[in-house]
C-alpha cells in the first residue's frame, strides 16, 4: 500500500505530504534490525497512513485512539494490535527527534494504552506427544520431506525464530566443547547467543545436507515440485508454510513457526530445565518474557508450597 498521497500532520505541525512521512517511516524501519519487526512495522504504518487518508485527518491522539478501536472492531488479537501501536509510537518518536513536534505533543499520542493481554494463551503449545506426531508428518524418503523435517526439528528442538532458521548458514553449525551448536546467532535486538543442537536434530541436518549435496551457504533451499533443489535459500514465509501445513495434517489449525519456539521452551521447562538457561536458549533479554513463553499453569493438586518444610 503506497503512502505517497497521504497528507500526514502531527498535532500543530504539518509534515510534507510524502517525503516527510516516508522519511520518518524509513527511520522507524532502519531503527529495528529484526526482519519480522520491520515487516510488521511497515504494514502497520501503511495501515495508519491509509486510515488518515480515509478519515482526511492528521495524526493526533484522537486519531490513534480511533485507529486502535478500528483494530479491535476487526477482532485483531491483542498482541497484533499492540505491535501496530508500537509502530505508531516509534513514528511519533522519530517525529519528535526530528524536531517536527514537541515532547508534549509526542507524549499525548504515545500514551494511548495497549490492549491488555490477560491470562495464559491457549493453543500455542504442543504436548510432547503432539510434537512427536508433528515431526512424523514429513515423508523423509523424499528430498522435500528431509528438508521439512529439518525445519520442524530445528524449530522444535532449538527454539529458533523462523527468520533465524531461514537465514541459517552451514558455517554456523560448529563443534564446540565436544558438542554441536549453532554458534553466535544474531537474534532480535542484535543479541548474540549460541544454541546447543540435540543429537536427533543434528542427524536430521546431516541427512538433509547429504541428500541435497549442500556443503556451504544457506542450510535450507527451495525445492521444485519435481523434487529438485533450486536456488540458494528459502524465505521465512516458506518456513511458516511448512509448519502450518504439517500442523493441519495432525488436526491443528492456526499454528505457526513461533508456536514451535514456545513449544520448545515449555518442553524444556517440563523436563526440568532451569528458567535462566531457557532464557539463554531463546535469546530473551528478560526472564519475564521467557515466563510468558512457558504459559505456566498453576498446579493445585501438588502445590509448590506443600514442600517448604515448615
What brief labels describe this structure?
single chain, 310 residues, mainly alpha, hpI Integrase, Chain A, disordered N terminus, DNA polymerase, domain 1
Write the layout of secondary structure elements.
Elements: E1 9-10, E2 13-14, H1 19-30, H2 35-55, H3 61-73, H4 78-97, H5 103-110, H6 128-135, H7 143-158, H8 162-166, E3 173-176, E4 179-186, E5 192-196, H9 199-212, E6 222-223, E7 229-230, H10 236-249, H11 257-270, H12 275-282, H13 287-294
Antiparallel strand pairs: 1-2, 3-4, 4-5, 6-7
The strand order across the widest sheet is: 3-4-5
**Gyration radius over CA:** 23 Å
Order of helices and strands: EEHHHHHHHHEEEHEEHHHH
Q: What distance separates the N and C termini?
A: 64 Å
Low-confidence stretches: 1-16, 119-123
- CATH architect. name of the largest domain: Orthogonal Bundle
Strand portion: 5-15%
Number of strands: 7
How does this model look, in words?
This protein has 310 residues and is mainly alpha-helical. The chain has 2 domains: 9-110, DNA polymerase, domain 1 (Orthogonal Bundle), CATH 1.10.150; 128-294, hpI Integrase, Chain A, CATH 1.10.443.10. 52% of the residues lie in helices and 8% in strands. The protein has 13 helices and 7 strands. The chain has helices at residues 19-30, 35-55, 61-73, 78-97, 103-110, 128-135, 143-158, 162-166, 199-212, 236-249, 257-270, 275-282, 287-294, and strands at 9-10, 13-14, 173-176, 179-186, 192-196, 222-223, 229-230. The chain has a 3-stranded antiparallel β-sheet with strand order 3-4-5. Strands 1-2 form a two-stranded antiparallel ribbon. A hairpin with a 2-residue loop joins β3 (173-176) and β4 (179-186). α1 (19-30) runs antiparallel to α2, α7 crosses α11 and α11 (257-270) runs antiparallel to α12. The longest helix has 21 residues, at 35-55. The N and C termini lie far apart (64 Å).
Amino acid at each position: 500500500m503506497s503512502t505517497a498521497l497521504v497528507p500526514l500532520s502531527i498535532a500543530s505541525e504539518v509534515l510534507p505530504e510524502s517525503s516527510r512521512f516516508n522519511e520518518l517511516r524509513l527511520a522507524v524501519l532502519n531503527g529495528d534490525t529484526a526482519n519480522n519487526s520491520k515487516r510488521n512495522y511497515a504494514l502497520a504504518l501503511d495501515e495508519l497512513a491509509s486510515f488518515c487518508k480515509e478519515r482526511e485527518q492528521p495524526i493526533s491522539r484522537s486519531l490513534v485512539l480511533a485507529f486502535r478501536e478500528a483494530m479491535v472492531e476487526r477482532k485483531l488479537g491483542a498482541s497484533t494490535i499492540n505491535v501496530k501501536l508500537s509502530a505508531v509510537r516509534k513514528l511519533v518518536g522519530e517525529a519528535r527527534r526530528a524536531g517536527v513536534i514537541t515532547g508534549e505533543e509526542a507524549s499525548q499520542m504515545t500514551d494511548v494504552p495497549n490492549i491488555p493481554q490477560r491470562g495464559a494463551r491457549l493453543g500455542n503449545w504442543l504436548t510432547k506427544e503432539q510434537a512427536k506426531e508433528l515431526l512424523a508428518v514429513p515423508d523423509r524418503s523424499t528430498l522435500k520431506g528431509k528438508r521439512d523435517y529439518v525445519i520442524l526439528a530445528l524449530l522444535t528442538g532449538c527454539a529458533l525464530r523462523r527468520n533465524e532458521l531461514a537465514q541459517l548458514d552451514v558455517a554456523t553449525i560448529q563443534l564446540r566443547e565436544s558438542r554441536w551448536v549453532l554458534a553466535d546467532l544474531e537474534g532480535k535486538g542484535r543479541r548474540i547467543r549460541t544454541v546447543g543442537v540435540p543429537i536427533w536434530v543434528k542427524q536430521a541436518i546431516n541427512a538433509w545436507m547429504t541428500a541435497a549435496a549442500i556443503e556451504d551457504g544457506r542450510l535450507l533451499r527451495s525445492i521444485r515440485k519435481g523434487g529438485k533443489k533450486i536456488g540458494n535459500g528459502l524465505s521465512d514465509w516458506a518456513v511458516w508454510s511448512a509448519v502450518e501445513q504439517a500442523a493441519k495434517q495432525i488436526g491443528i489449525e492456526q499454528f505457526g513457526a513461533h508456536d514451535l519456539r514456545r513449544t520448545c521452551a515449555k518442553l524444556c521447562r517440563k523436563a526440568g530445565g532451569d528458567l535462566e538457561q531457557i532464557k539463554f536458549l531463546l535469546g530473551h533479554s528478560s526472564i519475564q518474557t521467557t515466563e510468558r513463553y512457558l504459559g505456566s499453569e498453576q498446579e493445585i493438586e501438588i502445590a509448590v508450597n506443600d514442600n517448604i518444610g515448615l
